[in-house]
Amino acid sequence: MILVAGATGAIGSEICKRLIARGQVVRALVRRTSNPTRLAELKQCRAELAYGDLRDRASLDAACGGVATVVTTVTTTVSRQPGDSIEATDRDGQLNLVAAAKAAGVRHFVYVSYSNDVDNTPSPCPLTEAKRAVERAVRESGMAYTILRPSYFTEFWLGPGVGFDYANAKATIYGSGHGKVSYISSGDVVEFAVQSVDNPVARNAVIELGGPEPLSQLEAVAIFEEVSGKQFQLQFVPAETLEAQQAGATDSLSRSFAALMCSLVVGNTLNMSDTLRQFPINLKSVRDYAKSVVSHNS
Questions:
Q1: pTM above 0.90?
Q2: How far apart are CA 152 and CA 267, in angstroms?
Q3: Which residues, listed in sequence order, are joined to residue 48 by a DSSP beta bridge?
Q4: Residue 80: what pLDDT?
């Protein structure tokens, strides 16, 4: 049996569906306060629901019983519920899950972290500190481990949530816009997580994940302009402004997002050729993504 934590999130729910479609028995760790629609979807795809919370160790002990593999995608950066924070959930909650899995005799732990190069700014980033603390615990747990480190998610970082408003041909550019990033589709991260369950190459491995080609923010805009036939209106946010936001942020989530934006300015590129020889995945490009969202909004 495979336990998926973060099962009501966009990535976790898709991992559940793909694992079940491949014949795996899946237990989904969910909260009673989770989105009812997501819970119904998990039930419909025949996932067993285990109600619990990363901050409640007893519920994790119960959820891990009889489980061979744990896959966790939990993060508070996109969706939060009362009491969630980077420290309480991304760090301490995930550490609770690692400890519960080890105590239950789980053999394999798959952790979706993020790229080693995502935070390359001089100021501390709470999210990076939390991710690395969990990575250390996973590696030292004695369980076989797979740590997946995706770069910037295409759908988020080239989406309206951070000012990439493709529907209205407007984009906020952080810094000069020339730093290149290996944007990766969330669906490809899902596939790497699913294949990591059975792929022996993934055992006791830290795997950096990026998309098929590094692109700057301005190159991504040019692709969208070509696909949509519209010229984008650009608004630039200087790197100094982002650094000031990071320094002045009063909570860990705001400080972390400012740090990620500072890193976006610098860039984060990955060569995936060796990894793709071991994982048969046809990576989705930014152009593929642009075609899908532009046609959807046309």
A1: yes
A2: 10
A3: 27
A4: 65
